Amino acid sequence: MNISGELLIGRHAVRGGAGTIHAIDASTGATLEPPFGGATPEQLDQACALAWQAFDTYRETAPERRADFLEAIAANILALGDALIERCVSESGLPRARIEGERGRTVGQLRLFAGMLRQGDFLELRVDPAQPERKPLPRADLRLRHIPLGPVAVFGASNFPLAFSVAGGDTASALAAGCPVIVKAHPAHPGTSELVGRAIRQAVQELDLPEGTFSLLFDAGLAVGQGLVADRRIKAVGFTGSRAGGMALMAIAAARPEPIPVFAEMSSINPVLLFPQALANRAAAIGEAFAGSLTLGAGQFCTNPGLVLAVAGEGLDRFLESAAASLARIGAQSMLTRGILRAYCNGVGTLAQHPRVQAVARGQAGNDMQGQAALFCTDADAFLADEPLRHEVFGASSLVVRCRDLAEIRRVVESLEGQLTTALHLDAGDHDAARTLLPSLERLAGRILVNGFGTGVEVGHAMVHGGPWPATSDGRSTSVGSLAIARFVRPVSYQDMPADLLPPSLRPDSPQRHTWRLDGKPQGQAD
Amino acid sequence: MNISGELLIGRHAVRGGAGTIHAIDASTGATLEPPFGGATPEQLDQACALAWQAFDTYRETAPERRADFLEAIAANILALGDALIERCVSESGLPRARIEGERGRTVGQLRLFAGMLRQGDFLELRVDPAQPERKPLPRADLRLRHIPLGPVAVFGASNFPLAFSVAGGDTASALAAGCPVIVKAHPAHPGTSELVGRAIRQAVQELDLPEGTFSLLFDAGLAVGQGLVADRRIKAVGFTGSRAGGMALMAIAAARPEPIPVFAEMSSINPVLLFPQALANRAAAIGEAFAGSLTLGAGQFCTNPGLVLAVAGEGLDRFLESAAASLARIGAQSMLTRGILRAYCNGVGTLAQHPRVQAVARGQAGNDMQGQAALFCTDADAFLADEPLRHEVFGASSLVVRCRDLAEIRRVVESLEGQLTTALHLDAGDHDAARTLLPSLERLAGRILVNGFGTGVEVGHAMVHGGPWPATSDGRSTSVGSLAIARFVRPVSYQDMPADLLPPSLRPDSPQRHTWRLDGKPQGQAD
Question: Looking at this predicted complex, what is its ipTM?
Fold first, then answer.
């Protein structure tokens, strides 16, 4: 499949008429062909009109058909074969094995939602049957299902060009819910975006779905993204990216005549807590594993460990020595874009010049497209006194905060903003100390993990990739895992509705009703 | 129990130091004793500090204990006996039977959430067990529960001084979720608020819960409410009231350093659709029932039928005659406050003077505290041309829109903003017509009901009292029924957490785990 540089507006591939984006080889800085045209306001309007037109039809497709659709997207992505992998490696600068793994995750994610649709319980059906004899008033028959919100605008992330982009978690969960999707492609990987977009468009055609079910737009500036969020036919937004970007979209969404929800996953420094017993027993091993997590994908993970908290002492010193030795062996890696590299270098530079921050180690130096890992150290007083030390430095940079005792660790934890993850390294003798911190940590993060790092995000049913502000704009949501579908649906209650007017899933004789609640009590059993 | 006019800040009853509110007898206009003092900024800060202090303890109380707490509140409200009923009738101007019924609903609502807590499944537990042998990477053990957001600020409504006020649905669902609650009392029923607040405070003491679990504040202006929503320790807001009020709180919440969700139930005109066959068969009966729903509680219901759509013709004429005749027999009723009465009279006056609106009927005239019901008529062209005709007139006023045909009804429906309810009056011969409108109606409202009116809101599991903007600030939520608890919780995932550090509900040997999902599949059966 060739890359044409065109927008995908429903079934049509058309040249964007508003400015041009060039893909850049992230490892070499070379410009890649072809150029991509940004969407004009008219082209944006067409995509929105088609999405709105598709909505009522698409949302009432049988869940099994949407499952087939998601599986067809997965198959079509795999069928792109090496062309997709090579383009994606080139645009992202990420290693081939990582991109292949990410493709597996993307396809697995689509299949997870397909399985959920076949199981049928994402509708969260509820039935409170009529009680005509009830005193003093009879009770009406009430039946509840969830319906999709409407067309969803998806803003892909640069750091996961497959799993958090055109066919990533936001798109998969919105399509599963029954929402048409318009993706605003990330300018860092337009060719990858077009290839995946064509795979989705092909699945729309294979399943004979309304063409407006999916569109893909490029944006040579900010106008397309802003216009999408402002468009009256868009009913929700999925975004992964910077805090400033997420907040800008939230402001647009809140100022609409009809405000809409924005699910933005924005920033996190993912505190790692090292407990005394674990440090005493295995400081060196933890330090080495930490260096691996810190530098994975050049540190360009939302769940990258940007902050380490521990009580000062011999154990922490050994952790630092080990981490420093490991970092010194790790080569510099290409970063996703020049802009990200620049921001990373600025962030590291600010820390390096901070009067109360000490440099612990650097990774190997690289060329002018590559980021050099960095590890810094400070004490709790300095950290608590200087708010900017809490800011995310996107990339392989981390700050270790030496604390006097557990109480000081708690003060630092309580001073932090919301996080996606927090990781605890502990042994049996640390459980009591960990237990006292857990209430603070639960209030802090969406995922708490033990003896690991947050950089592996399992796509499952019990995963939360979300957390209190500013990790996400809505801490009640997750953008990874099957619970992500809940973002894009709303409940509707049907009262005394004749059976032939009820949606199929709520009819008394429904063959689809897999799991439901009768007067609040769950019915139906796992098979 | 005497009414003292004091704030309830945790266990202390203290005189508010910022201004004074006087309760007014809604039927006579007389000032009622005692005066109530508004909270100072320091008193507001105390209530927030206590709520925050209570949070970690209260949220980890066993669900059974919170169930006992909610049932104790219900018992204490009932124990207030006639003193509560009389004060509430006096402050609201609503009939005694209505207030007694509302007390039953309030108590039933508390017990519904108690039952849900005993059942234990509001936590929506999920377990994806470890797969140490999985290739290429082992799978970690992931366990998910929902935890409460934090202290919740509740703003009661004037029109349901018990069921949507101090111990109403917002408070009941927040307390059930594990959130401490601070209520900003509605100035229209401060005595009722204090009595109910004392009933809750007594239950806090009976169950030996942290004193900050509940506080009640009066506000002589807007500062206390605004300050509450802006306070960093408040993590969510429940509000029922005007659109302007809800939007003001949303703006404050969005501008915080940490934005928080506001669940505001604001405005709705609840379109009623009369289908041809139903009108042919029983226009007069529908007209009479409509007049009853319109004037219930002086029309001061969020679900009051403020708009009627039907195809012009003989059937609609008979409906109008019947409704007019019924209204003429219905006496004027006291309205909740002078301000509401004034706004109602203004709204009715504007309609009466509108060049393209015809007056159909008025209810009986009353005294200067009473609202006189009003029914108007216009045509679809006029309605579509003049946006203000779509605005809510809070009270017993409704506008009938004569349409040419079903297509014009659809155009009117599609022109409307989001609604709490829409009601369809139809007979067997109308099903095909109704079916074609259902997609539009599902996008329009949170509850669709057949051959009834929205003014009865059942407190159950399949109820939705919510709807797209501006019916509510978040159309994905309901403020009535057991699903209301979902507003106040967020998911947290625990990865590879040792059993003794897991919360009790997620331990492998948990006795509490009533319903849960294993690898996404629901487990456990209704008993």
Answer: 0.97
